[in-house]
Fold each of these.
Amino acid sequence: MTEPGTVLITGPTRNLGRHAVLAMAERPRGRRPDLLLVGRAGRDLTAVADEARARGARVHEIGCDLSSLADVRAAAATVRDLLAAGAVRPLRALVANAGTMSADTRLASPDGYELTFAVNYLAHAQLVGDLLGSLTAPARIVLLGSNTYHANVWRKLLGVPEARWADPVELARPATGEQAPGMAAAGVAYSNAKLAILYYAHELQRHARAGVNVSVFEPGWMPGTALGRGAPASLQAVSRALGRVPGVSTPRRSGPLLAAMALDDTWAHLRDGAFVVKTRLTEVQPVAHDRDRERRLWEATAELLARAGASR
Ligand SMILES: NC(=O)c1ccc[n+]([C@@H]2O[C@H](COP(=O)([O-])OP(=O)(O)OC[C@H]3O[C@@H](n4cnc5c(N)ncnc54)[C@H](OP(=O)(O)O)[C@@H]3O)[C@@H](O)[C@H]2O)c1
């Protein structure tokens, strides 16, 4: 078994990310990684860091609002400094867990990008790009996908629309004008960001050096998490109730599965953006494999990230 080194995780403050952190911190000493927790600074970040320390893990809190690319770059610089100072063991895994579903697709990030696309996709592309050279092989990059990218049965039941792909520069542009009531536009933006993550994962593997493996994890539908916090109260109440249905995924059940994606030998072979739904390696739909879209996304992402850097 590879020495567990250090694992960086975004979105550690609640639900899936928090349970993944606790599952990693609870591992026996020789299999327990150092943890870099990248999340919005404040009480929640400190609380999860303390919980992980209480379980024996060495933890660094790195305050970062992922909606701001300047913040993301600063977080990556902090990680590089910690590694250079030997304050943590070699970086073996980066888990891009944070996510949001902005209820209003007209909202822009500080860099001027649609908020869901900015947090779920662009921030992680920046972070991964800045830290790709800091990973020590064998290393893993685990991105968070969602089956909402295509027309699956849960999506239909929930009324979350499937992705409607467009050029990434368009996807990054906040909507204008009247927004239709309900969560339809928010759902499309969310599904688009998750389809972007699949395309990115495939392309990223082509750019990563040998021994750095890219995979995508789908935790199963976990109703009642904070992802839907911008939704109407009635919808949130239904979602919370569904979260109590036996057999439905929960952060408590899926968190350890995400931890396993980062650490367990079972998943050491995953690469090329292999898609795991909970514990099952799954073939993605044909729409999620598209060399032209993958290449274009890579190129447009570089433009979008550079534009944000240049405007400061
Ligand atoms: N829930 C599901 O059914 C489901 C299904 C498939 C995939 N997923 C994916 O699984 C991941 C975790 O989902 P979840 O349900 O646990 O979501 P959640 O309860 O909403 O937690 C999201 C995490 O992301 C963080 N985050 C959001 N915006 C951020 C920002 N601007 N800066 C820094 N951190 C930010 C949150 O931090 P704060 O505490 O500061 O808000 C929180 O830690 C997401 O990528 C999601 O898309 C979820």
Amino acid sequence: MSDTQDIVLEIHGLKTNFYTYEGVVKALDGVELFLRRGDTMGLVGETGCGKSVTARSILRLVEPPGKIDEGQILFHKFNQETREIETVDILEMSDQEVLATRGASIAIVFQDPATYPNPVFRVGDQIAEVIMLHQDLRTDVLDLKIELLEDSLKENVAPEKRSAIEEKISYYKSLYDDPPEPDEKDAKAAALRRAISMLSMVKMPAAASVASQYPHELSGGMRQRALIAMALACNPEILICDEATTALDVTVQAQVLNLLNQLKKKIGTSIMIITHDMGVVAETCNWVNVMYAGTTAESCATAELFKNPLHPYTAGLLTAVPKLHENRDRLPQIRGSVPNLIYPPTGCRFHPRCDYATETCKQEKPLLEEKQPGHWVACHNPLG
Ligand SMILES: Nc1ncnc2c1ncn2[C@@H]1O[C@H](COP(=O)(O)OP(=O)(O)OP(=O)(O)O)[C@@H](O)[C@H]1O
Ligand SMILES: [Mg+2]
């Protein structure tokens, strides 16, 4: 997989454990996944299967007693200066490099929008702050100055004042070739203007007035859009949405996800959507990774997964796929329950729930293999 040019992120053998008093929770046991540039990938699986821990591991946000113990998280990063792709292992980065990556190259929108964005700052100011940190505003400042001067020309001004303003305008225009570093106040004004245009881009109604509101004044759907605007404000190469939409009603959810797909085309971000909902996957993702109890069960194109699931677990998930407009946010039941990850089953972690399990399944952990072209599965007895 690693020789493929179009992959932006790949994870190999990722093991993340939680060292609790009750014992070691083996939350991720060799996760394998890859994200192609420009794809919208769905990461699905029942509650507790390790979707959020995977997302947190990617950004090294796993907190004690959790620890990433093994694996590789290769980020094929686009270097703005050399305009070349360079490969870095996020797990080998210094803390400083991780901080720079977080929010800049890889952004994450978390599960619970009620606790985030920061309640004490105005929405526009929060987005503007991200923009000031991550975007070059030098020409924006010139645009803004020229626009203000041109506006003032529309009013009744004395002829000598008019020519002074016109002179100033042509002076600013001459600076475009090598724009100077703006001062803090000008940069702030330009960033706020860009924040408002980001809010319009995520189809926020009355973007300019929303910018001056506080998060609690917005509805859940609007807050979600504000969060996405904030995540996109740093032009990330990868956007991870951890179930950002399940708290919303289904119509808003569909709108937000469609919007993400439109924006993706515009700004070229690769997206990872974490969800329980196969309906969401069907409607918005072109690739799917199915997780089970901290392992990758299956990975392929969405249409292929629905047509030809190879893992018995996936087949179970698909037996009753809810439509996006049906009010269901849980997966259909599969016999048995998710195992305790302090004492996970031996061999294939799914074997106690699997109708096709054999002695081998109890003893040997299946590796994720490309069983059919473009279709990976970790199963000793795949269907199909
Ligand atoms: N702080 C923690 N301490 C102990 N165990 C944890 C901790 N955080 C996560 N885990 C364990 O890691 C496993 C994976 O959890 P994770 O939150 O990634 O699941 P998920 O797939 O995101 O579930 P959901 O769909 O409910 O969000 C679970 O077994 C969980 O109990
Ligand atoms: Mg989760």
